[in-house]
Amino acid sequence: MKLDELKNTVVIPEGVSIIINGNTINAKGPHGEVSRKWNNPRIFVKVDGNNAVIIAKNASKKEKRMLVTVKAHIKNMIDGVNKNNECKLKICSSHFPMQVAMEGNTLVVKNFLGEKVARKTTLPKDVQVKIQGDKISLTGPDIETVGMSVSKIEQLCRITNRDRRIFQDGIYLIEKNGRAL
Q1: What domain count does the chain have?
Q2: Please, are residues 43 and 56 in contact by the beta-carbon 8 Å criterion?
Q3: Can you give the residue range of the structural domain that contains 71?
Q4: Chain segment 102-142, per-residue pLDDT in tens
């Protein structure tokens, strides 16, 4: 059964502004700016005072799902620019001590499992990295770029062709937005 019009709202807190330009949403806040596109022609977003109203015309099940998805993306954007997204990783090494350093936008891992060649990965510019002892902290306004950076770091230290029960060295995610994993 199709509905003529389906609405959903997201409250915009003080200090955060949302600008809609065609099918692009821009959110600005004290911690930065995030923009996102969506490609569904039946979903419209408009700002009404301090609310973002998401409207679906001729809403079937597909549009209802997309409406809730767009609402979740807008909430994540608002949370990210209002208070940064933060992930913490732990450096685990048993026999060979790993050395992790930042060189510009590149994270460099030296002496991983005794390897002579350093492993490197490039991280986005809007993600701030702090290395303190055996902990790495990543912060940024966009939840997706922070999560992608965590994934790149974990994949950088992935162990292949060895028994993972024995060789447990690597860099692993331990905390996400204040919630321990």
Answers
A1: 2
A2: yes
A3: 3-82
A4: 999 999 999 998 999 999 999 999 999 999 999 999 999 99
